[in-house]
Amino acid sequence: MSIRTVAVGLAILASACAGSGSPDINDAGDPPSDGNNGCQASITFDPADPIASADTPVRAIGHVDNAPGVQTYTWHVFRGTTEIPFQPEQGDFSQISFPSPTPASFTVYLKVTVPGSLFCPEASGVVTSIVPGANDIEMRLHVVPPAGEAGLPIDQRVIVKGSGPTTLPDIVLDSGIIVTGSVNDGATGIPAYLRFLPRSKEAFVESFSDGTGAFSARVPNLSHDVLVIPTAAGFAPQLIKNWMPQSDLVIVSGLAISGVVRDPANAVLVGAKVQLTIDGVPSTLATTNTLGAFTIRAVPGAAGSTVRFDVSPPATAGLPRLAASSTTFDLAQPVTVRYAASLSTRDLAGTTVRRAGAALAGAKVSLVGTLPLVGTVTAGVSANATGEVRLTASTDGTGALPTLRAPATALTAVVEPAPGDLAVTAIDLSTGVPSSINAAAMQAVNTVVHSPASGLLEGVTLDAIPLGALQLAGANAIRATSNASGAITTSLAAGGHYELRFSDPGGNGAQLVVPDVTAPAVAASQTLLGAVQVNATIRNSGGLVSTAAVQLLCSACTGLVRSRPVAEGTSGIDGKFSLAVPDPGTN
């Protein structure tokens, strides 16, 4: 039941009542909000970051602007979903207080009536009381609305407090604006892939321009950097900075950068793919011709930009992929890519792949590895190049490999006899070619998942994320789920390394990450981390947003870890979500 305090004299009686849910601000009989006189209401809290205490209540202060005469204040205070009593602190009821003996999040609503029986738009505020000495941690909140909903993806920083729930202010999705324009070179429209990156936000919007160069996209109404990757020949990808919506995207053809790729014997290498990036923005992609020559196009960056060359040789060459970076390359000079003369290869043709002595027909074999020095790239100055081996072939009907050349060094074979069935085996080609490669059977893993309070948990998901050789070979993650007894049974590749992530969709504990293990090293018991709940409601211009995808991610992390969620879920029909994240604790 919601509380209605139409007159100031009824507010004390109302403060002793309690209900559930949020107040119904659109009950029949309410006067309309005052949309003409500019009345605005807001709420602040004293203290802004309260400490839970039986002796010190939290004070909510109502503020009203552009309202004539004497105002009447109607308050509602919710602890979670339960309406709680409050006490007036000013004679005109412009301030109230409410108890917070233990850590909790409170949502406070304020409706202000002005003379003429008009209402200001309702104000709301969220405040969370914390335990003394609570730590906090910054996280990234990423929200993607479902298709068809008005609203743009967001990626924003939030602060999570230790030892108690954190209720964030309502997450209001920006409806953005529809922009139309053209990708062109000043005269001719150009088809392209577009990525709009708001300069003050991390979430981006993707779109395409058509064959005439025309595009239409819904984006935030603010300055962007726009990555343009033309699909028409003769134009380099480029990053247009400080673009404002409702203007065209004018691109240039870019600088033509030419060079040659040579193998360890200094012969030209035909069929190698060459690309560079300048501060992360790619060039066009070229393949070396019969003279080993290539020409790519790129838009040069400012002085000191990091330029990286990536070269992928043809698979038949048996050479590693090559990469070299420098801040002093002169792209106006001819480029020479040269594999090191010391680099030699061996052919595994005829090597048999076996499991338990039996030959494996049709098994996929990936040879992978990293090498510290495989050659040089010269463009005015010379830079050493590192190498990465990713070579693949499948065995014939007798289990033997066809021609498969690879660098004569220590590598790793990732064998896949059938989809999802993997084995990892070290091979050393520095002294010769092995007659066979052993693919051990997948190894069973059994573990039991407990909550922080030691209870057994059903429905916990285990994601085993491939690392090292498995990651280089492109192996997929393995997922398993705990049963009613908290038990998880799955299999991991023999010899493979994994990062394990245990997550409970029910929020009984925070995600547990085991950074680098092999199957025999997986512990028989796992205990999820102590958790705090992060709660919020998602809205857009049309109201509550359900089924929005919500993730909380590490804010300080870099690389792949930055993109892996600490907790994830979806908003409910009421627009609310609640995610469990590791408790920062207290100091």
Structure in words:
This protein folds into four domains: 8-129, Immunoglobulin-like; 136-174 and 444-463 and 479-587, no CATH class; 177-250, Immunoglobulins (Immunoglobulin-like); 306-438, no CATH class. The two termini are 41 Å apart. It is built from two helices and 49 strands. The longest helix is centred in the N-terminal third of the chain and has 5 residues, at 11-15. It has 587 residues and is mainly beta.
What would you say about this model in short?
The protein is mainly beta.
In whole angstroms, the N-to-C terminal distance is 41 Å
| Anisotropy-based shape | flat
**Looking at the chains present, what oligomeric state does this protein adopt?**
single chain
> What is the domain total for the residues?
4
The assigned structural class equals mainly beta
Range of helix content = under 10%
* Proportion in β-strands: over 45%
Number of strands: 49
**Radius of gyration, CA atoms, in whole angstroms:** 31 Å
Count of separate DSSP helical elements: 2
Overall pLDDT confidence: 91
Major pleated sheet: 12 strands, mixed
**Poorly predicted regions:** 1-22, 24-36
